[in-house]
């Protein structure tokens, strides 16, 4: 059983932690030993959120070394860029295109990277980069909050775990009245990667 | 057995359940807060849990419960142990009637603490057993074993996690809860044991010392410690999550994995040392193990390679391993891509709609010295406010303000302290100001909960962790009863009220209290109209931007006269608190007709 390491990156309030919890649980359901570590800081107050998730036969450290991450699941482009040092030349990246400028940018003291810069930096670090406009898909579905489930749906197509396992874990964490919405979001996610592959 | 994915803190809560713990107390603090939250959520019927007013109170409550025959657990973050320690040290002398474990959640790397202290020393200071789990399974198991150890040796037991153990998740096999008594008998009258008056406590001290000798003997075969033999050229002694990191970075090495790190198993360590050519200790923060092992006369290397600060993550261990020749170059780091240096920082800010914003807006404008405290409002030290000039520990602000005042600082100074922090340890300091009569304004920023650590209850809320109703303690009568004569309460969302309240208190020659009331933005779920900037009226003066609100941004449009960017409000982030409208000099900020804020955040 091969070890697989994932970096999940986002901004406080985006559902990054829920997504990394789901990813860890999917690994457990698929028969792996699993560990994950979150760095929150003051995340709830709009800071960066970073999770390491590991699947393997026997996982020791919950924290992954730089250059050892096989996948980067990023909910925000700037946060994706911060994660590149963890990647290796065969890594795969899935990145939400919706930018959330930090207050240093909105206040005018710093500049947010251009989309071209984002693409260049991510491509220089990984083998494959997929962009998904998950926030737009979520808005189409009528609730911005399901962007993370759209991302998970998209991400599930990059891994060799049955879709049923994914859906089981995702839906077990959703209150009954939102199940249909989240099911839709997951399905939407499953279809968007093919349309959005960049390289 | 049920297999579940739990964080270390959730696993500790599960451990309490499986250990037959019936009472759990604590004061919130990262990274420990989720333990009691989990107990209250999952095991409410079996375990009574409470947020006590501070850690010392929590420990006294725990002592009383354990004396009464209930298995008990206390939780604190690393600096919370400093507050708790006074009470811990007498329980060491008294012992208990039922198991008592104390959890300290340390913070190497300082993710949310004011220092990086290593609380393992508390075990040595107090002369009690110390357990260090390395993952969630051990976190759960060690609580069960810790309760057993506590009862077998009649002592409180310290369990120390770190942020990476408390907040990391791993797989746990769940066990059953033992049967525990529903009722307890009459309280034990054993004065010579439980009254720590000098004449009796003096007789207890040799008991404590003998207990330590017995514990050291126990440690030799304890289930917590084990040796993993591999190559004999390098032997590593490690504990906690650092063992997990080291296991990965040094896969060829032999390991002595210590789960019980005080008292140490001297014979086990000696035989491990004899079996390896080179012996190193890898431990985060202080040379706690290293110094003890050296004192046994065993030659060991530790801090000369691995520094006594910050985490020792696998990356750091790899780097240090390469530099010290413990790892071959070939197996070193693989990454080559570095993060672009020009990326904008994402610093935490006061939320849109935060009730603390108005106070820091004025403190910044008025330029007076501010003694700060622990809570979200510590963000007042950052731009655009820069309005907090000291911050040390829970409740420090009021005492520091008094010190500034009696030192003769020529400016009128203020202290800012949150509701829960005031109850925690601000109250004795305010009484001190009243008794010793100094001048200064104490601003109690009452946002209706212990917000920073996850909105826990405190005496100012009308509910408890158990979900029961509680009397809501009012600040104004409370501080008046404490002898403060000048007390004002203002609406934190009314800029004018905050300003005049502040001015009135500043003019008062003596201790005064200004209470700024406003519900935490994360708790206020009332839908309100959101605001917008009328670009035709905006003169790009930047007044609203000085509020540091994440919803107010610089627009692309510029003012024709000055060339400065106009302001804009992000309707998705605005919660309609109205503060920006009040600071705008030209009434350019108005209610947006087409949009209400979502009340369901």
Please tell me how large the radius of gyration of chain B is: 27 Å
CATH domain class of the largest domain in chain B:
Alpha Beta
Mean pLDDT of chain B: 95
The tally of beta strands of chain A, per DSSP, is: 6
Strand content of chain B: 15-25%
Class computed from helices, strands and strand pairing of chain B: alpha/beta
Shape of chain B: globular
Largest interface comes to: A-B, 58 and 50 residues
How many structural domains of chain A? 1
Q: Largest sheet of chain B at a glance?
A: 7 strands, mixed
Number of domains of chain B: 4
The amount of helix of chain B comes to 25-40%
Shape of chain A: globular
Main attributes?
heterodimer, A: 199 residues, alpha/beta, 23% strand, globular, B: alpha/beta, Rossmann fold, five-stranded parallel sheet, 22 strands
Explain how this protein is built.
The complex is a heterodimer of chains A (199) and B (601). With 199 residues, chain A is an alpha/beta fold. Chain A has one domain: Pyruvate-ferredoxin Oxidoreductase, domain 3. In chain A, 40% of the residues lie in helices and 23% in strands. Chain A has helices at residues 16-29, 77-82, 103-106, 115-125, 134-140, 147-156, 163-172, 179-196; strands spanning 4-11, 33-39, 48-56, 69-74, 87-96, 128-132. Chain A has a six-stranded mixed beta sheet, sandwiched between helices. In chain A, helix 2 links the parallel strand 4 and strand 5 (87-96). Chain A is globular, with a radius of gyration of 16 Å. The mean pLDDT of chain A is 91. Chain B is of the alpha/beta class and 601 residues long. Chain B folds into four domains: 3-180 and 189-219, Thiamin diphosphate (ThDP)-binding fold, Pyr/PP domains (Rossmann fold), CATH 3.40.50; 226-331, 3-Layer(aba) Sandwich (Rossmann fold); 357-517, Rossmann fold (3-Layer(aba) Sandwich); 529-596, Alpha-Beta Plaits (2-Layer Sandwich), CATH 3.30.70.20. Helices cover 34% and strands 19% of the residues of chain B. Chain B contains 19 helices and 22 strands. Chain B is globular. At the A-B interface, helix 1, strand 2, helix 2, helix 3 and helix 4 of A face strand 8, helix 10, helix 13 and strand 20 of B.
């Amino acid at each position: 059983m091969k070890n697989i390491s994932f970096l999940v990156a986002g901004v406080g309030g985006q559902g990054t932690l829920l997504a990394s919890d789901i990813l860890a649980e999917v690994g457990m359901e698929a028969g792996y030993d699993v560990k994950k570590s979150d760095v929150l800081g003051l995340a709830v107050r709009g800071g960066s959120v970073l999770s390491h998730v590991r699947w393997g036969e026997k996982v020791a450290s919950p924290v992954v070394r730089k250059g050892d991450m096989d996948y980067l699941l990023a909910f925000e482009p700037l946060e994706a860029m911060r994660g590149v040092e963890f990647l290796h030349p065969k890594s795969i990246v899935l990145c939400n295109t919706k930018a959330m400028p930090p207050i240093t940018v909105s206040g005018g003291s710093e500049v947010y990277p251009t989309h071209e810069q984002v693409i260049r930096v991510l491509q220089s670090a990984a083998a494959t980069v997929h962009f998904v406009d998950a926030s737009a898909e979520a808005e189409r579905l009528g609730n911005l909050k399901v962007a993370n489930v759209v991302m998970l749906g998209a991400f599930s197509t990059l891994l060799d775990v049955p879709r049923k396992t994914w859906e089981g874990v995702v839906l077990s964490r959703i209150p009954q009245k939102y199940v249909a919405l989240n099911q839709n979001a997951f399905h939407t996610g499953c279809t968007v990667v093919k349309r959005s592959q960049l390289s | 057995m049920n297999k579940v994915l739990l964080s270390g803190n959730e696993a500790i809560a599960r451990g309490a359940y499986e250990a037959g713990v019936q009472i759990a107390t604590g004061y919130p603090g990262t990274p420990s807060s989720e333990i009691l939250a989990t107990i209250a959520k999952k095991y409410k019927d079996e375990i009574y849990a409470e947020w006590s007013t501070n850690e010392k109170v929590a420990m006294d409550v725990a002592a009383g419960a354990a004396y009464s025959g209930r298995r008990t657990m206390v939780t604190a973050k690393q600096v919370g142990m400093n507050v708790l320690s006074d009470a811990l040290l007498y329980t060491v002398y008294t012992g208990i009637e039922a198991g008592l474990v104390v959890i300290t959640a340390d913070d190497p790397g300082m993710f949310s603490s004011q220092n990086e202290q290593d609380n393992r020393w508390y075990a040595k200071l107090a002369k009690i057993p110390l357990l260090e789990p390395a993952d969630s399974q051990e976190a759960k198991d060690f609580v069960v074993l810790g309760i057993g150890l506590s009862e077998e040796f009649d002592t409180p037991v310290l369990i120390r996690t770190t942020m990476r153990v408390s907040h990391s998740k791993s797989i746990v096999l769940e066990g059953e809860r033992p049967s525990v008594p529903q009722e307890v008998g009459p309280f034990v009258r054993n004065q010579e044991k439980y009254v720590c008056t000098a004449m009796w406590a003096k007789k207890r001290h040799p008991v404590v010392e003998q207990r330590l000798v017995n514990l050291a003997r126990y440690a030799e075969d304890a289930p917590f410690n084990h040796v993993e033999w591999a190559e004999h050229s390098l032997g590593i002694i490690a504990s906690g999550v650092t063992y997990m990191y080291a296991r990965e970075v040094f896969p060829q090495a032999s390991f002595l994995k210590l789960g019980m790190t005080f008292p140490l198993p001297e014979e086990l360590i000696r035989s491990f040392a004899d079996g390896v050519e080179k012996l190193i200790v890898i431990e985060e923060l202080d040379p706690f193990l290293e110094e003890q092992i050296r004192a046994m006369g065993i030659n060991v290397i530790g801090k000369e390679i691995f520094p006594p600060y910050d985490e020792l993550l696998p990356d750091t261990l790899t780097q240090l391993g390469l530099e010290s020749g413990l790892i071959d170059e070939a197996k070193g780091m693989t990454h080559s891509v570095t993060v672009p240096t020009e990326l904008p920082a994402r610093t935490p800010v006061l939320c849109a709609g935060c009730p603390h914003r108005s106070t820091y807006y004025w403190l910044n404008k008025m330029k007076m010295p501010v003694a700060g405290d622990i809570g979200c409002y510590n963000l007042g030290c950052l731009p655009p406010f820069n309005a907090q000039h000291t911050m040390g520990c829970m409740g420090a602000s009021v005492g520091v303000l008094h010190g500034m005042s009696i030192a003769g600082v020529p400016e009128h100074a203020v202290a800012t302290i949150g509701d829960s922090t005031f109850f925690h340890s601000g109250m004795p300091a305010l009484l001190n100001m009243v008794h010793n009569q100094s001048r200064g304004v104490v601003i109690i920023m009452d946002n209706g909960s212990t917000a920073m650590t996850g909105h826990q209850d405190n005496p100012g809320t009308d509910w408890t962790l158990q979900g029961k109703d509680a009397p809501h303690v009012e600040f104004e009568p409370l501080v008046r009863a404490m002898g403060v004569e000048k007390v004002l309460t203002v609406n934190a969302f009314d800029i004018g009220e905050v300003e005049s309240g502040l001015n009135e208190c500043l003019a008062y020659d003596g201790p005064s209290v200004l209470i700024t009331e406003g519900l935490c933005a994360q708790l206020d779920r009332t839908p309100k109209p959101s605001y917008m900037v009328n670009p035709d009226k905006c003169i790009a003066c930047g007044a609203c931007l000085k509020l540091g609100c994440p919803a107010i941004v610089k627009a692309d449009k510029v003012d024709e006269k000055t060339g400065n960017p106009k302001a804009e409000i992000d309707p998705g982030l605005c919660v309609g608190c109205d503060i920006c409208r009040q600071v705008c000099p030209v009434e350019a900020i108005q209610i947006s007709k087409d949009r209400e804020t979502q009340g369901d955040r």
